[in-house]
Amino acid sequence: MEPKEKNFQLDDFQKNAIAAVSRDHSVLVSAPTGAGKTLIAEYLIQKCLKEDRAVIYTAPVKALSNQKFREFELLFPGKVGIITGDVNINPFAPLLIMTTEIFRNRILENPGSLNQHSWIIFDEIHYLDNIERGTVWEESLIFLPKHMKFVGLSATIPNVKQFSSWLKGIHPHPIHIIREDQRPVPLHFFFQCNGRICDDLKKLEKEGYGRRRRRGFAPNSPLSLIHHLVRADRLPCIYFSFSRKRCEYLARDAMEINFLTEEAREQILTIYDEYCTRYDLVGEERAESLRKLVARGIAYHHAGIHPMLKEILERLFTGKRIKIIFATETFALGINMPARTVVLDELKKSYGKFFRALKVRDYYQMAGRSGRRGIDKEGFVYSRVNPRTITYREIATIFKSAPEKIRSRFNVSYATILNLYETHGENLLDIHALSFHYFQERSQLRTRQLEQTKARLAILKQLGYIHAGQLTEKGHFAKKIHGYELPISELFGYGALEDLSVRQLGIFALAAVFEPRAGASKRKFKDEEIRELQRVTTAAIRGIQRFEKKMQLSYLSKKFFYDLSDSMTNWMKNEAFDKILQKLQIDEGEVIRYYRMSIQILREMLETPAADQLKKKIRQAIGLIDRDVIDAEAQLRKTVDPD
Asked: For residue 217, what pLDDT is reported?
């Protein structure tokens, strides 16, 4: 395909990948963030469309799926569709974008629907290492239909040979491994320590990491660093912080600097106001607050923001109008938002139960957003460090070590077991030998993983999902509910779902997906219907977890949390979204996400053997929830335009 930039020349790794794809061979590409992997995917898509062949593009998160839908609709108008659970647009298009979960579900539940698709692109394939969702990638690769080839795009994988050996062992067709370690735009690394900026790890010893006493440090001011970037002409900048509140605080603090000329200010506000009008955000509290920041070339970006407002900020940033954006690390995941400079507010973050130094892979995922190919000759990365919070050894480990090897997180779910049992019966246990986990781990861990699968299979039999070698009605119900299968299916088995009202179904689905923040106090409800729901679901979960603990499972079925029940009741009564928010202590982006997840659960229930009367009430519940800001499909359609 034609390169996007003038005088652009393909790198060798791009040429090699394209040559392999041209021969209909699968390709795994391991290259640094910003190296130009997307061009390979675009070549394949163009090739498939010219040859009248269908292709699937998967992404790890819905936001990236939506962005790719907008990008590809401009490149290949009228030939793009998207299915994410929230959105279903042009589902029979030759280029179909979907989340990896949707693709995995299709393989297991309806593989015939993939007969027309000859290729699949796995973007961010190293996400297989993600503890919560990595199993989805592994299952997608294990059960990939024999007629399909794949392109896997990844940040640097140190154990790419091991990973590729596993792939070659489970797929008979040729697979080419393309590895590139160099970035086309070199990066320069700096540290802010003790109020000063240095460009060498060794110099940090003179700024507080030596043996001298650690007292009397100068303040490590973010503002002084930002002033330095302005003087050095190193904007635009993505400033990463791992706290939403911190992002907002830093953005407000930066308002003492005006990054825009008067003419640029008028232009950006005109565009911002036009977008807010188009996306129905006029008068929205956060939109008004951000407008003041935008007027000075500043913004912040995190998961708590209204999705449409994030879309506006992303467009302004890619349009080079916003000069500095304070963002959480999700901004680095695949979203095409490169800058001249990246700043990391600190080099430690929370990893589940632990607060520790950044993983090398995470550091370079963010750092790689600096240095725009075709625009910048070099990129700049600044790390803010403090001897009181991070040791020299921890810093050195980040900068001197290779990125972590990807590890299998294979952990077969109940729904996957039920779908496989329907086809393979007891032989489904043999599939464990095909996993990357089996390929990668020693025999003791292999045995442990297999025992976990056997335990889940035993629980399904004990609870009546499988009987006499066949799935029961409850089993057929549960195989469609991914992630929350046992708690919801147990209530189906009791007949309790059919007794729920339309309102209760909405509350029930929301309680299934909602996860309160750590340390949040338990809510007590006056509403008798909610209290009864809470009692019934709590009893069901306790029964399930009793079996799971007895079988020593590593992960237990999720509990129901009814914290947002009042808000769902009011929303289903057609209350305005801003009034809903006034009564809550969580950000609007989170509320929207949880409501949309509720809809996805309800839609999955429509695919089960539930009674028609129950399905009628489910459709009514979906209709009451899926409106205005919650209607993801309507929101996405608004953003698909030529500008």
From this structure: 58
